[in-house]
Specification:
This protein is of the alpha/beta class. Helix content is 41%, strand content 18%. It has an 8-stranded mixed sheet with strand order 1-13-7-12-5-2-3-4, with helices on both faces. The radius of gyration is 29 Å and the shape is globular.
């Protein structure tokens, strides 16, 4: 452990409060089966409860409380400590997880009122898994007088690690008790790709954002430097005031202004993994070795004084004894961080009303208004939290930017009436034409919420509903709108229509690859491999035609456009925002030109496909691929493409 400030020589006796925010089906399941059981292990919560009064506070939803009350582990927790639920339904949105997490923690801390400064708060996210003994080590440091304990976590692939730990927890009567070295060994074999991307002694892939740096020593040892590191425990010197930034930006300086921090720098003392889906933040990954100037720019933009202090302490994760060569790597890591911080182009950013926070709150409010249907009320944790200077700036930013963002979000998912200046115009043009030219109703199945539908379009989110509605009509046009992630279920949808006896003479399948600019893989190649999963078993009875949209130029243009749009959103300077917005408008004009060019120069199947439209037309009974009584066709006449051979 490394001390980053003076400790209290006469620490007060403290009660312990463990704050755990858990919501969402995936996170509740992972927490109940793995994370919670690691927290309850003998040398973690059980040992702490023997020495202190402990309250376990779940920050969750009404549905989450019902799930937890049905767990055997909850009864075990109630036998050793008090358990309380704090509802956060009003804080949850479909996006901006960081804002919700911060407000949930703040609500829990403020619920202690005057007892805030006599309570030590332990923060435990739902995707964390502790090694046995880690929590008792943290509490021991609090007992020694440290006001704040910073603790690193290591990201791992949840798809592999979660089943392995869940199986181990099920096989043990005591829950999940894994030694630090065993857990490090498991983690190093299943590192998340963002950890690999931030490992500097490899040059295959790198991450565009640098919250942490890693250096691989050997197959059992990893050294890290953290600008972003989790505050595992805080014994406040003062109560929490207004929430003026994200939890890992403001809680430490706001509640521990003296700077009495300790950082757990050896995995033998403390180790914690963070379960992350393999696809999480993959849009941040780039090929090749990072540009050092890009690291300077990234860290200069957002790091606070605390972030820069934390990064000066190297952390060692090791599954076996630390090898001799680790010392040289630690020195190299410290020298690298010092050289980076010496070249940062600006002073540390003030944590209060950090630009990332003000922008995140504006986006959170916009999503909340959309989710709540306009019946949104600002939660008490946010009321009055913007300073006058920031409020004036935020009003200009959130006014124009919020309205524009909401309009573009709608267009990004729209199927009909997309303007020609938008990048989805080429994707949806054929669907638009089909609807406009049809004299009958067009039945559209889509799991996406499609707004601004034409009057002759009937929308369905269930194949059964579509089938029931179609039985009374003689349908001519059916459009199945499926996302890339749903292509494997396409055959099931077609079979369901066939079984319902409502399969029309012609059916259109629109495969939509939303956010294709963030994909590094080439969907055009993958789409061909999905063919056997998409076509019906009797596809030979149909004429199949296809239309594709995309292209390398469009793929690159959308990525560039996205960068300028993000700069426009993130900038708190009116001049920078105006410049970025102007460039973005110029790129929109180029997109319009590209759309017109694509209309006149159709590519059968371009690179980086963003959408595909398949049309299946049932052949008339008089047609067949080859008549049984006719002789085989000669090689000289194979028929035109799409022409039935009769």
């Amino acid at each position: 452990m490394t001390m980053l400030g003076l400790r209290d020589p006469n620490p007060p006796a403290l009660d312990i409060a463990v704050l755990t925010p858990v919501w969402g089906e995936r996170y509740i399941t992972e927490f109940a089966e793995v994370g919670f059981l690691s927290l309850l292990s003998h040398h973690n919560l059980e040992l702490v409860c023997e020495r202190h009064n402990v309250e376990l506070v779940f920050l969750t939803t009404e549905g989450g409380r019902e799930r937890f009350e049905g767990l055997d582990a909850i009864q075990r927790a109630k036998s050793i400590c008090s358990v309380r639920y704090l509802m956060i339904d009003d804080l949850i949105t479909s996006a901006n997880y960081g804002v919700t997490l911060t407000l949930a923690f703040a609500r829990a801390i403020k619920s202690f009122g005057e007892r805030q400064t006599s309570t030590a708060f332990i923060f435990f996210n739902s995707d964390f898994v502790l090694s046995d003994g880690s929590l008792s080590t943290v509490v021991q440091r609090l007992e020694e007088g440290y006001r704040c304990i910073m603790a690193p976590s290591l990201r791992v692939n949840a798809e592999v690690v979660f089943p392995a730990l869940s199986k181990q927890a099920t096989a043990s009567e005591r829950g999940l008790e894994v030694t630090s070295r065993s857990m490090v060994e498991l983690a190093l074999r299943n590192l998340h790709l963002t950890v690999v991307g931030r490992t500097l002694n490899q040059d295959f892939v790198h991450c565009a954002q640098w919250g942490q740096f890693y250096w691989r020593v050997d197959e059992h040892t990893l050294i890290a430097a953290h600008h972003l590191i989790f505050m595992m425990a805080i014994a406040p010197e003062k109560p929490l005031g207004i929430v003026n930034s994200y939890v890992d930006y403001c809680f430490v300086p706001e509640m521990v202004p003296s700077g009495q921090f300790a950082l757990m720098d050896d995995s033998d003392e403390f180790f914690m993994i963070e379960l992350q889906a393999k696809g999480q933040e993959r849009e941040m990954l780039r090929c090749g070795h990072p540009d050092v100037k890009g690291i300077y720019r990234d860290l200069s933009e957002w790091t606070t004084a605390e972030h820069r202090r934390f990064a000066q302490v190297p952390v060692v994760f090791h599954a076996k004894d630390i090898p001799p060569q680790a010392l040289a790597v630690k020195e190299m890591a410290q020298a690298f961080v010092e050289s980076i911080q010496a070249k940062l182009v600006r002073m540390p950013v003030d944590h209060a009303f950090h630009d990332y926070w003000t922008q995140g709150v504006a986006a959170w409010i916009a999503h909340k208004r959309l989710d709540d249907g306009g019946l949104f009320k600002l939660p008490p944790e946010l009321q009055g939290q913007l300073s006058p200077r920031r409020r004036r700036r935020s009003r200009w930013n959130s006014g124009l930017k919020e309205r524009t963002t909401r309009s573009l979000d709608r267009l990004d998912k729209q199927l009909f009436g997309v303007p020609i200046w938008h990048h989805r115009w080429c994707d949806t043009r054929a669907i638009d034409r089909l609807v406009k030219e049809s004299e009958d109703s067009v039945y559209v199945y889509s799991l996406q919420v499609v707004e601004s539908c034409p009057s002759n379009v009937r929308m369905f989110t269930s194949v059964d509903e579509l089938a029931q509605a179609a039985k009374a009509d003689r349908i001519k046009h059916v459009v199945l709108h499926v996302l890339r992630s749903q292509v494997h279920s396409l055959r099931t949808l077609l079979t369901a229509l066939e079984c319902a006896s409502v399969f029309p003479q012609e059916i259109t399948v629109f495969i939509d690859h939303l956010d294709s600019e963030f994909e590094l893989s080439n969907f055009s190649f993958e789409l061909a491999q999905y063919a056997s999963d998409m076509l019906p078993d009797d596809w030979l009875a149909y004429d199949v035609s296809a239309r594709f949209t995309g292209g390398s130029f469009r793929h690159r243009a959308m990525r560039v456009e996205g960068r300028w749009w993000r700069l426009f959103l993130r900038s708190s300077s009116r001049l920078t925002s105006t410049f970025a917005g102007t460039i973005w408008l110029v790129l929109r004009i180029l997109t319009t030109s590209s759309n017109v060019w694509s209309k006149r120069n159709a590519n059968p199947c371009p690179q980086y496909c963003s959408s595909a439209m398949l049309t299946l037309r049932r052949r008339r009974k008089s047609q067949a691929i080859v008549r049984e009584s006719s002789p085989l066709q000669s090689d000289n006449h194979m028929g035109a493409p799409g022409e039935a051979l009769v």
